[in-house]
Amino acid sequence: MLAPDLARKASCEDCPIRHRAVCAHCEGDELQVLEGMKSYRTYTPGEPIVWAGDDFNFVASVVTGVAAMSQTMEDGRRQMVGLLLPSDFLGRPGRAHAAFDVTAATSVTLCRFERRPFEALLRETPAVGQRLLEMTLDELDAAREWMLLLGRKTAREKISSLLAILARREASLSQQIPGGEIAFDLQITREAMADYLGLTIETVSRQLTALRRDGVIVLTGSRHVTVPDYDNLAAEAGDDADGTQLT
Amino acid sequence: MLAPDLARKASCEDCPIRHRAVCAHCEGDELQVLEGMKSYRTYTPGEPIVWAGDDFNFVASVVTGVAAMSQTMEDGRRQMVGLLLPSDFLGRPGRAHAAFDVTAATSVTLCRFERRPFEALLRETPAVGQRLLEMTLDELDAAREWMLLLGRKTAREKISSLLAILARREASLSQQIPGGEIAFDLQITREAMADYLGLTIETVSRQLTALRRDGVIVLTGSRHVTVPDYDNLAAEAGDDADGTQLT
DNA sequence: CTCCGCCGTTGATCCAGATCAACGCCTGGA
DNA sequence: TCCAGGCGTTGATCTGGATCAACGGCGGAG
């Protein structure tokens, strides 16, 4: 593991984000390579980034906004399989075709690297590969947590789980006082929430109303949520206490 | 990528399985390390291998049998999040505690490596790390496929999907004639199937009966399945044709 | 300003799968 | 040999969430 101060070296500072996959382990030489590869692109809400099966010749980090990874069946049933938030990594080194659809959920800016040179970097710089392995293992754990949600949780627990995740993320970003209330914006529509949770938009709406009625959350408009008591929300989510602690 | 003939070198041949994570990239020196680390252990059906949260100081490959990775909620609801079949890798380099319960579904033999020296091997041998990254990315894709199943498929589609996966695996193992019928044993109980699919055992049983009634499968006893027409089964599973082709 | 389309909410009804219950078969132990 | 317990099946009933339907608010285009 490199010392933390190495993470900020040289031209990584030019980039509006810290690429989790590469920057934490960058040293001078690799950065030269990265500089030549980088390109930014912004997508408008709803715009497809790639379709499943398409050529997929770049990897990328999310700089701002939210992108959604999803699968659709022939009859239109859709399941979101990943929500990509700023600093998340998108792409599949070693595979030329996308396995899933990726769509901009909000306005999204990606910092993209061409796949081939990125793969070369991966081969030549084991630290980047190790970091990517760690990130992938974390994602796999998260996907497995999500399988419990999809397979066994009730609609109310599903909504509560999603809100708890967003609240945790907000709290960690803004250094909230533990025990204080947490407020954040739902960046996504009811439809995206439904696709993520394996529900319909009507059920999402009804359960949000029910959680508001029961005082678990406060809804200001339809997109702004305040969580007066995080532990209460976490209890609604039906999670074991482990791994969902705020601090 | 190493040439295929390197995969069989030296003492890897002593091992009853080819460790997907390491053997395909072994060269002389690393094998010395591996030899000192290996230990075998057999678990009886139902026996826990690790509990979520436990110290987890080894990684392993499945030699024979089936192990199940699962999560349980306080009230007993359970969701299986992975089925570990021979040659699958178990463990999480870089983490000292298990994230999920792992249980022997049948009699299972593992070939285990202590975690610490394995991590050292990983650091010193980038090829092993790359192989592990590839495997992890494949697992992540599989987990995401499973999310579609759990979130959006009907009970009949869920059962058909599981049978189609098992049939595909059987066909690839036994070099079946494409288009011919495929026969295999369900290694697992109805309960394990239910836990995997996010259903109850009664629903699993009823849907199997329905698929038999409709001629999609032939059930001999309760554990032996014959699939007369794979394409028919795949159609019941509701999958896109891509990625579920037999050949 | 008005109109239109999208987003979200709410109500009425339906149904797939859960739940509750009973039973048959097989296996292993006394 | 018989019994007990685990596994699987089937039937009856219930219910959580899907479906079908209507409506209100808001924001952008004209």
What is the strand and helix layout of this fold?
The structure is a homodimer of 247-residue chains.
Chain A: H1 28-37, E1 39-43, E2 48-50, E3 58-64, E4 67-72, E5 78-84, E6 89-90, E7 101-104, E8 108-114, H2 115-124, H3 126-152, H4 155-174, E9 182-185, H5 190-197, H6 201-213, E10 218-220, E11 224-227, H7 230-237
Antiparallel strand pairs in A: 1-8, 2-7, 3-6, 3-8, 4-5, 4-7, 9-11, 10-11
Helix pairs in contact in A: 2-3, 4-6, 4-7, 5-6
The structure holds a DNA duplex (30 and 30 nucleotides).
**Which range does the strand content of chain A fall in?**
15-25%
**Which homologous superfamily in CATH is the superfamily of the largest domain in chain A?**
Jelly Rolls
SSE-based structural type of chain A = alpha+beta
Total number of strands of chain A? 11
Number of folding domains of chain A? 2
Helix and strand element order of chain A: HEEEEEEEEHHHEHHEEH
Q: pLDDT under 50 segments of chain A (min length 5)? A: 1-14, 24-28
CATH-level-2 architecture of the largest domain in chain A: Sandwich
Q: How far is the first residue's CA from the last residue's CA of chain A? A: 24 Å
**Largest interface by Cβ-Cβ < 8 Å:** A-B, 43 and 43 residues
Give the class-level CATH name of the largest domain in chain A.
Answer: Mainly Beta
